[in-house]
Input
Amino acid sequence: MILKSITLKNYRNYKSQSLVFHPRFNIIHGDNAQGKTNLLEAIYVICNFRPFKQLKNEEFINFDFDSAAIKGELEAENGLNEVHITIKKDGRHTRLNGKIVYSISKYLGRFKVVLFLPSDIEIVKGGMGIRRKYLDSVISAIDAGYLKELKDYYKALSQRNFLLSSKKPVSEISFEVWNEKMAGHGATIVNKRLEIIDVFNEKLVEVYKENNESDKNVKIEYNFSYQKNEDIEKSINDALVKNFSNDKRRGHTTIGPHRDGINFEIDGVDASKFASQGQSKNLVLALKASEIKLISDLTGINPILLLDDITSELDMKRKNFLFNTLSEFAGQIFVTSTRKEEIPYRGESKSFLIKSGAAITNK
Ligand SMILES: Nc1ncnc2c1ncn2[C@@H]1O[C@H](COP(=O)(O)OP(=O)(O)OP(=O)(O)O)[C@@H](O)[C@H]1O
Ligand SMILES: [Mg+2]
Output
């Protein structure tokens, strides 16, 4: 995957900007509040057809205008693709190679991108929902059908919850269809998660060895929110039936893959509760490095890497580890930083100095 060029029109603090990127390494640098993250965000939007933060459309449109547009040329396995996105207050319109994209979710994961933000420390330290969402997003990048399963599961879950919260009397029989749907899609989701966690764990251990860290026993654990037997579909269905009265009392579904836990353990201890700041940083770094390897190995495609301002978060040792890992990675990389000289990368690259929503290109 290579993003060859991008054109921004009235996007955030950019008015009109066209950039041609290096196929390997791109450094986006400049002072604070100049538009580095905005540019990275636009790149993400081109690859994923949607932004990494759920915001109102108008926030992406330059304050002085009514609409914004981003165009990107992406080289993928199928050849050169042109993605064109217009953003108006009342909606976003996406075209892929001239054709309107009606369902964005169908294309998610087609153009692979791995994003690394300073806030990713939350994957380790934040709530369970963040870890589940993270794992689900990694699987979606690898497995084209996964997102559909998730959507179908959550649709059934919200129907079941709707019935549970109903003030009118509802018989237990009317739940059967939703229980079955949740169990069916849920089992596919859980099996996929377990499968990915196995490979993820292998990579994590590898990366930790390379990093020569003392926290050797790092691993991802999956915790079921119900009694799990051989047959996961049956386990979920049985648990939904068993929990009916409890769920009815609470007005929502209290068990299922949407409540399963994903935990990181360092030497057998839950990292979300006990990891130090340094251990958490090492773990996020290792997770991201493993994620890149996982996607490349399992799909044969090198994702585009977007690293926003992470060098400011890392000390020299961690920075060196990260850039050593990156120098082995054959894909295209975009890094933002306020200090270009702090990026320990000596290979071929292109730099873009960002000043008030405009870029000055240097070789
Ligand atoms: N819709 C918009 N229209 C105009 N300007 C905007 C819009 N959205 C954001 N901005 C401006 O963009 C600037 C922030 O850009 P960005 O977050 O890309 O900065 P940055 O270079 O990454 O800075 P830092 O180094 O602090 O992370 C802010 O000054 C903000 O006011
Ligand atoms: Mg920024």
Summary: Residues 1-112+301-363 form a domain with the Rossmann fold fold (CATH 3.40.50.300). The chain has a mean pLDDT of 93. The chain has two domains: 1-112+301-363, 122-299.
